[in-house]
User: Fold this.
Amino acid sequence: MREPTIALAFTPEPWVEILHRHFTDHGGARVRQLVMDPSVAIDDDYEVLVASARWPALTPGLVGELHDRGRRVLGVVGRGDRGSHDVLARAGVDRVVDDDASPLEFLEALLLLMPDSPVAPVLEPVADRSPGRRVVVGGPAGSGSTEVAIALAAALARQGPVTLVDADEVAPSIAQRLALPIEPNLRTAIEAVEFGTGELDEALQDRGRGLRVVAGLPNVSAWAQVRPSEVLRALRALGRHGETLVIDVGPLLEDLAGVSRGRFALTRAVVAEADALVVVGTAGPVGVSRAVAWIADATLLTTAAPVHVVLDRAPRDAYRRREIEAELERCFRPASCTFVPDDAEVARAAWAGTTVGSGAFVRAIGLLAGAVAGADPVGNRSERVRVRFGRWPRTGAVAS
Assistant:
């Protein structure tokens, strides 16, 4: 039987260092990684994760995702510690070993988890558990992306059930904009998926007409209390019944020193898994240049998602619009482009805490919804509609 490849979840317990040194010096198993952040446990290439019940990231959500990827989990407990046994049982680990076991006993447990072992747990191939489509809406600060996300979700809800999710880690505001309570919220969904605390539906607030809302983080500082991988698992769970997810994200995409749980990591992670990307900018020289820069950063994260451009507060002057079209044509090829004019109905709806009911803004977003609904989420960017000075696809991707 070949050597198993493993990842060790780092905790300040003696067995971690003992096991690492033993396998490094004597073989038996190959240690691929000492894991501190759970995103590393998901992304790295190995067969078995060895983790203590004291590792806070060991949750049912993480174990479920590892199982989906064909990996096993060996849990480690203190001898006679019933509380730790209960933690591992709830997490759904494949096998348990005591923390005072010898390296040989650890190796025997690992070998029993290998696919060619006669007693290895059978992990059936998992079908796509997230058939729902994820439409991610973002853009530079002050562009109006949250308002567009709300209106787009309401428009798409006329075609089927939609869940609007506030994943803005910089300025979560959908609950305030729609006069909703700040709880339940995104953390409620995470707790349901990760720890089985309550039901996922308890995180949803029904707005009627096929639209449900997951409110954002309760305050700006709460970004440090969630992991991007946890949010992604919650989004996958929300989409398992086929709902379209419209996800509002933050305005900043900087990769701060490659920290997977650092500032703006949540926005980067959600953008990377988008099926369609709606980028909102203001329709002026500075606004367009900022939107193009945002698109450039976003397309480094997601290479397959079609990009739909929305230009808010657009001029009615045809010459100005042609200038904007020419600039977009010079930089890249959007799947669609929607000009959204100023509309007093938006301000009225904001004061009332409702979605915008009618007017030029709603008509423009309706055309955007048609373009988004008809787009191929995995289409080749080189085959997208070419923008040519006012000639746009017949789906009505441009509104006056």
User: Anything to note?
Assistant: The two ends are 68 Å apart (CA to CA).
